[in-house]
Amino acid sequence: MLASNVRRDRKSPLDDGTAFTIRGLIPDPPRHRLIVVVQRFEPKQEVNGIWEYQPARGQWKQLVPMRLRLVANEGTGYGSPETVTSVSPARNGQISL
What we know:
By secondary structure, the chain is an all-beta fold. The protein has no helices and eight strands. The relative contact order is 0.20.
């Protein structure tokens, strides 16, 4: 298991926190890594964005932090986060969100 919001023994930056969604998981064999697009609603947005995970070293590194603005839910006192709806696989070393 790479990450879990219910795992208390923190082995990744996503562990022991609010629920999250993996919007994209893209292998990058030439660089021996996985690109992981993470989204979760949290008061202080710290983990949203694009991450790299290096399996051989068990290391996580945030490549691009993303701030997700809240969209008002009509008739409620709270908002919902905008979502990253799709992630395209890497082509020529680039991914599309």
